[in-house]
Amino acid sequence: MASSFLSIDPQYLASQYTQIERASKDQLLAGRSKQFTAQLDAIKKLQTSLSGFLTQIKDFRSADKSILANTATSSSESTLSIKAGGNAVAGNYEIFVEQLAQNHQLALSFDPTATLATDGELSIDLAGSSFSVDLAGLPANAKLSDLAAAINNHADNDGVSATLVRSGTETFLVISSDESGAANQLNLSFTPGADPAGADITAALAGQKELKAAQDAIVRLGSDTAISVTSSSNTLTDVIEGVTLDLLKAQTAGDSPVSVKVGQDDEAIKKNLQSFIDGYNNIVGSISKDTNLKNDSMARSVQNQFRAIFQGTFEGSTLYSVGIEFDRNGKLNIDTERFDAALQKDPAKLETMLSGDNGMLAKLETTIEPYSKSFGLLGDKQKTIQASLDLITEKQKRHDYSMELTYKRYLSQFTQMQVTIAQLESSMGQF
After folding, report:
1. Which of 42, 125, 171, 255 could form an S-S bond across to 112 if both were Cys, CB 3.0 to 4.6 Å?
2. pTM to 2 decimal places
3. By C-alpha distance, which of 89, 86, 91 is closest to 353?
4. Cα gap 316→405, rounded to integer Å
């Protein structure tokens, strides 16, 4: 028996006894770690899904896109291009582009070899707002490029750009208004100082050339009794409701007006709506299918708030009345017949119900925002779960250290036992 014990490795015995002693707590800690890790992953996925859904919602609420998509065509894309928002009303229009808006641009001619004046003030007035550049503040031996830089970097410059253009023996200081429109008129003046070189600037101002006049865009709407519309920009957003016109080229007398057609894009509408419904169903479905989310009060709160929104009223009507409804499994669906009827009857009302300031998308955006942002509710929940997971990790480390001491204790005991038995056998062998 003793010889049998002596043949057993104390390290093996210590390891086996330690494993038996640590097994139950290892299993408990591993289970808790797995639980918190699964919860953390589920909450992260939910937050990512909500962020993506929120982006989709904001996109549908933006000025240039809507669930209720419209098509818009121009008979001359080189003259004007057109985009229609969801609230555009179907119709045909005739538009004549009489004049494009443009910014004011002046050119002053200078001898590139001449020395720039060391004093005097160049004043620039833009639409009644002026600022002055003091030439005495320029670097020593300043060049025309230094004057241009001083104009561009002036603290009071609110919409003027200066650049140099070289042509043969002349250098032009070109000064432009940043914004187009007749109101953005430039006026330049110079107050000379003692330096006689200031006469060059005075002469340049006297001979200034207008490269572009400050002017508004002018379009005529209609072919018979035309309505004239002016705009400081070549992008017109308020001529036809829900339609953006980008003017590209002025027409000449005798040109035919550009024919513009606006209409509903039924295929795009169905695609947009289905994309939205899929996004919603994916989130709600993930909450219902994932045990970690299904049993989580915050995830269930999101689900309940969503459902409450869809069961509310917008513009005095329910979403069910316009074909947006839940099936018996809680999935969001669209009844095509009811939706098409609502779209044909009153597209403006339907657009307001879906994308208006108090519409379905706005309420969803308000609901989702606190959960989806990085430092929001789900972000805080992740920190709480991560703290619990870190605590389990710390407990595991302490348990590992404790078991390491236990192993050493067992190893010492079994080693000592083996030594003691060996000594007893040696003593008995002497008799």
Report:
1. 171
2. 0.63
3. 86
4. 73
